[in-house]
């Protein structure tokens, strides 16, 4: 399995040293690169702190050989004295060890603590493992490449570009996103009809206001589905109607009888079931939208993460006038960036743009320019490949761990995304007792029942298990701890 870029650099056993700081695949060196850019007066302390944290967190594993002080100083663009002082300080503290003529290495003394933190981070206070879905691995954020794009943009961005932006978004970003989405997701992407938003959450709210202004009062939602959509539409005055799924997607009969004229869908990788809408069901859904003069909101939340074959293309490409397409960088980069997009049908565009203008006057120009630069120079494609390798490995680790510690478990929705559905054998039920024991043991879980209205009558435990935020080792350990917690006592 290809390396995800999050594992520690090779240890002394292999005779290798950590790669140079400029290599974007080594997260530890990216931390040092950021520290090297600190103000001159505090640069030494920042470098020591970043190096200490890289060792403590496990990004630099025990036994890793560090570059010579002269080499690291040259790569970071700092004085050799700063690096030498950092090495000496951390050696005195026990984080590093050195020998005359033998170089500098990460000390074995921090091995146990580093593994414990690396395997289970990030986790909520008091939790020993967090399997809740929806969170990517934030340590995969490409700090060095993003920092380089930021510096490049600042150096050449004209002054006028820092004024109030076009509420649709920076033209350069809309052009870059349109090309990216057409190439990767098969959408019909016109930059003039693309809006940059503060994530899918804002895109959904904007659409809610536009629909409300057209007289709609309810929107259909997949059941099971994402509970966040209901609260977002409620903020714009719209109610929601749960609509059941079958093996091919939204069931057409209940949809037709519901009386709604707009519906939220996740057709490429339904959340949380993991199914991909069949070609026939996609066609039926679009025919329904045309027949009621309505719209389909396509939340393409993780369309790029498909592991065993090419990703399924977006629904929007089949009918751009009936599908409102949304997506973001929340899973591929980081949710904290608050950068997403909305591709609007022509008849909704002016209303959506005006609502965006009055809501916040547009997203920050500098952030948009950095993302445009990152996409244009190939950084976004590289980031997606890096994440796909890491998440495929973690998916495989989860499936293996469940088979080992919960034999007989049925796992579905594994072809794509950042979570799976696990249906445990009846002997592990009832579900309330299972969840209670998991919580008592500090294992954070989310049952499938939290995502819909259905309450199965059988005794099976059904879980939506997120795996992106944990390393393979953390997944294996977390599943083992869960099995120990729920075993009969």
From TrEMBL:
UniProt cross-references to CDD domains, sorted A to Z: AAT_like, WHTH_GntR
Pfam family, one: GntR
InterPro entries xrefs: Aminotransferase_I/II_large (IPR004839), HTH_trans_reg/aminotransferase (IPR051446), PyrdxlP-dep_Trfase (IPR015424), PyrdxlP-dep_Trfase_major (IPR015421), Tscrpt_reg_HTH_GntR (IPR000524), WH-like_DNA-bd_sf (IPR036388), WH_DNA-bd_sf (IPR036390)
GO MF, one example: pyridoxal phosphate binding
Ranges for region Disordered: 1-26
Domain of life: Bacteria
Key words of the record: DNA-binding, Pyridoxal phosphate, Transcription, Transcription regulation
Domain called HTH gntR-type: residue spans: 41-109
Protein family according to the UniProt entry: In the C-terminal section; belongs to the class-I pyridoxal-phosphate-dependent aminotransferase family.
Protein's name according to its UniProt entry: HTH gntR-type domain-containing protein
Taxonomic source organism: Streptomyces scopuliridis RB72
């Amino acid at each position: 399995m290809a390396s995800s870029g999050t594992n520690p650099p090779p240890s002394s056993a292999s005779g290798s040293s950590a790669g140079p700081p400029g290599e974007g695949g080594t997260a530890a060196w990216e931390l040092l690169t950021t520290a090297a850019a600190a103000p001159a007066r505090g640069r030494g302390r920042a470098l020591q702190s970043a190096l200490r944290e890289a060792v403590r967190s496990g990004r630099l594993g025990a036994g890793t050989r560090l570059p010579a002080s002269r080499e690291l100083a040259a790569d970071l663009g700092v004085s050799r004295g700063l690096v030498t002082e950092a090495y000496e300080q951390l050696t005195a503290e026990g984080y590093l060890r050195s020998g005359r003529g033998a170089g500098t290495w990460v000390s074995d003394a921090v091995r146990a603590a580093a593994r414990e933190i690396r395997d289970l981070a990030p986790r909520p206070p008091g939790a020993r493992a967090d399997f809740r879905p929806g969170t990517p691995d934030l340590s995969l954020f490409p700090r060095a490449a993003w920092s380089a794009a930021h510096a490049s943009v600042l150096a050449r961005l004209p002054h006028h570009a820092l004024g109030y932006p076009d509420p649709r978004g920076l033209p350069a970003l809309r052009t870059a996103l349109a090309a990216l989405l057409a190439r990767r997701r098969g959408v019909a992407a016109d930059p003039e009809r693309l809006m940059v938003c503060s994530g899918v959450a804002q895109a959904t709210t904007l659409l809610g206001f536009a629909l409300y202004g057209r007289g709609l009062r309810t929107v259909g939602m997949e059941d099971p589905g994402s509970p966040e959509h209901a609260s977002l539409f409620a903020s714009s005055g719209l109610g929601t109607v749960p609509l059941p799924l079958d093996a091919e997607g939204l069931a057409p009969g209940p949809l037709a009888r519901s009386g709604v004229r707009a519906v939220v869908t996740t057709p490429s990788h339904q959340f949380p079931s993991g199914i991909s809408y069949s070609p026939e069901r996609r066609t039926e859904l679009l025919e329904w939208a045309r027949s009621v003069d309505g719209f389909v909101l396509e939340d393409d939340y993780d369309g790029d993460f498909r592991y065993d074959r090419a990703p399924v293309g977006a629904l929007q490409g089949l009918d751009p006038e009936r599908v409102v397409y949304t997506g973001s960088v929340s899973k591929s980069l980081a949710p904290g960036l608050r950068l997403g997009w909305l591709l609007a049908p022509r008849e909704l565009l002016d209303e959506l743009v005006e609502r965006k203008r009055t809501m916040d006057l547009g997203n920050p120009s500098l952030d948009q320019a950095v993302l445009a630069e990152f996409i244009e120079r190939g950084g976004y494609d590289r980031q997606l490949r890096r994440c796909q390798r890491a998440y495929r490995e973690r998916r495989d680790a989860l499936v293996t761990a469940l088979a080992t510690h919960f034999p007989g478990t049925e796992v579905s929705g594994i072809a794509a995304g950042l979570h799976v559905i696990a249906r445990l054998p009846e002997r592990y039920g009832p579900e309330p007792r299972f969840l209670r024991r998991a919580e008592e043991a500090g294992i954070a879980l989310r049952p499938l029942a939290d995502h819909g209205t259905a309450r199965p009558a059988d005794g099976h435990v059904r879980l939506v298990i997120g795996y992106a935020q944990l390393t393979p080792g953390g997944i294996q350990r977390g599943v083992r701890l869960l099995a120990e917690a729920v075993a009969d006592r």
